[in-house]
Amino acid sequence: MAKGGNVRVTITLECTSCTQDSVDKKLPGISRYTTRKNRSNTSRLELNKFCPYCYKHTIHGEIK
Fold it and tell me: Which family is this protein grouped under (predicted)?
């Protein structure tokens, strides 16, 4: 039998290297992805995604 409630939640992943360099104000923006994760068995999520502003694959971490 299936569990009730919202097990899956929508989260936002943000590029970690763009947020560190955003103090310079030289970058045009910050790369963000939207995905879903299982709330019950997953802690903070970090995935390796392509950042169009850095032009390479970087670690994207979960934000609020």
Answer: Belongs to the bacterial ribosomal protein bL33 family.
Place of tokens 């992805």: 33
Nearest to 45 by CA among 56, 54, 34, 29: 34
pLDDT tens, position by position, 28-46:
678 899 999 998 888 899 9
Run means of pLDDT, 10 residues per run, the chain, 64 residues:
75 85 60 90 92 91 88
Q: How far apart are CA 11 and CA 20, in angstroms?
A: 20
Asked whether 33 and 12 are in contact (CB, 8 A), the reply is yes
pLDDT of amino acid 28: 66
Domain extents in the chain: 9-18+29-63
